[in-house]
Amino acid sequence: MKLNEIKDNEGATKSRKRVGRGIGSGSGKTGGRGVKGQKARSGVSINGFEGGQMPIYRRLPKRGFNNIFASEFVVVSLGRIQAAVDAKKLDASKTIDAAALKAAGVIRRAKDGVRVLADGELKAKISLEVAGASKPAVEKIEKAGGSVKLLAAAAAE
């Protein structure tokens, strides 16, 4: 093998499409731009333009806002936690927190904390340490003999 003989495997690279090189090439004449008019020219941005009429995004009133300080919780259902306990990914005897849920693959990342919702059935006796939990979820956990501790960061909000 010589340095000047090195090349990619067959089919590893695709040659670029040469546009506008005669009608025999299949992408000549209009060069893949359709036919004539403003959109066939370069430097055109007419999205939302309605021929001089007031565009819909200006006719309709603006409403609401995005609160940049809002906490974004990862939502986990009780059924999902029970499935992880059944699959022996979560240890029901230890306290379950965001790190344990991440290690078990129940959540991908903790964001601003974990919030537990009451979807699904819970049979295992678990003790949770999470940022938030709905009232029905807390009731289901306590009915199964478990406990829920809400973390201080979530309680302050």
From TrEMBL:
Pfam families: Ribosomal_L27A (PF00828). The keyword Transferase does not apply. Residues 21-35 have a biased composition (Gly residues). Signal peptide: none annotated. It comes from the Bacteria. Residues 1-44 are annotated as: Disordered. Belongs to the universal ribosomal protein uL15 family. Binds to the 23S rRNA. This is Large ribosomal subunit protein uL15. The gene is rplO.
